[in-house]
Structures are given as C-alpha cells and as structure tokens.
Amino acid sequence: GGADGFAGHLLVRSDDFGDSWRNISPIHAVDAIDFGGTDAKTLVVSTFDRVSRSLDGGETWLTVLRDSARYSFTDVLFDPASETGYVATTAQNENSRIMMTKDNGETWRSVELPVTERISEMQFGVGANVVLIATPNEGVFRVEFVTVDVESDTEDGTAPILEPVYPNPAPSTATFSFEIRVASIVSIDIHDALGRLVASIPDAHMLPGKYVIPWSTTEVAGGVYYCTLHTSTGQSVREFAVRR
Length: 244
Description:
Blueprint: E1 3-7, E2 10-14, E3 22-23, E4 30-35, E5 43-47, E6 50-54, E7 62-66, E8 72-79, E9 84-90, E10 97-101, E11 109-112, E12 121-125, E13 127-134, E14 140-144, E15 161-162, E16 173-180, E17 184-192, E18 197-206, E19 209-216, E20 223-231, E21 234-242
Antiparallel strand pairs: 1-2, 2-3, 4-5, 5-6, 6-7, 8-9, 9-10, 10-11, 12-13, 13-14, 15-16, 16-19, 17-18, 17-20, 20-21
C-alpha cells in the first residue's frame, strides 16, 4: 500500500499507510502534481521553472519541460492512456499559456489563452484533447486542441517524409528536416493557425536524399503554425509553435 500528498510545498510519501512520511520533492518546491499513469509510482509535478516526471515513486526525477525565469509553471494534467499532457504557465504582463505534449514530454506545443490571470486548475473535458481551465476571477474556459499529423497524398512509397519541426516551440529558428524518395520539385509553405500563408520557400529541384532547412521565425508572432512540404509525389504537414 501507499499514499501521496502535500505538506505545504513539499511532496511527501508514505509506504506504511501514514505512520511515517518522507520528502520526495524534486529540487524546487512543488506547485502541482498529477499521476502520469495507473501505477501510483508514476508522478508528474510542476515547480516554479520546470516540469518533472518520476517512474519510481519519487526516488528519481527527470525534467521533461524547462523554461527560463520568464514563465512559471502552475498546474499539470496528464492522460497516460494517450501520452497527452498539459502544463499551465504564467508570465508577468502576458496572457497565460498552456503547453501541450502528445508524446510524454518529448515535444511541446504552446497555446496562448485569452486570460491574464494565473490558471488555478485544469481538468479533462470529453476526451484528452479537451481541457477545462479555471481562473480566480475571469471564469472557466474550455480549450480544444486539434493536432495535425503527417499527411500523404500517395501510398506507393514515394511520398516525402517530413520530420517533426525542431525545436518545438521554436524561439528564433525552426528547422525543417525531410526526406525525398525520388527526384522532385520541392517547396515549403508556412501557414498560421487561421490558414494564412506567412512564408514560402521557393521551388527547387532536389535529388533523393535527406535535407535540413532552417527558417527564421523572427518576423512572425508567437503562436501555432503549419509547415507543408510539397513535392511531385505528395505532401506532408507538421504543426509547430513559435515562442516569444
């Protein structure tokens, strides 16, 4: 048996039904906790400047998200069945944001919210893509996340492969990595969340192989964008975020 709970900003654990307790907090004081799986030993916690995960009941911790002092992390919400997680963030003189991962923290997407207050609590709505967030004075909001995965126009093995955009979120430069299976005319378009074309990388004739193209994000606002790779044999799409 066992139990987990809070003691102020400490995360404490009991393995004997509360007869004794010990501190299992990461380096910094804990602000929020969620279980990252059906096993009580899988924990996800947020502290002031990072999000950490433990697979052994708090004995060891791995940082899965960290930012500069600009943002503080206020709440965490994880759905172990779909590897989907959300982290609420706040920053001085900025709207609050939610960081989202679909791969247990390997990559993150940032979404700005129409609220300026600190997010006090998050809960899942209907499905892992719907989140209900609560603030002290501005009310409760429902946020639905739509993720665009790789799309292909062909099924004969000649379609291009577009890797996830790196880094994600991208602070100043986004890197597009892709593979061309056959010689092709290649171009790349970047659209914003409203479908508006914000940038294009002109047509070029490319031989089969792997390519890496950097794109400066300094001329666009922070938010969600879509990179579309066009070739003679099909297209692929990746979603990414620009962070400001």
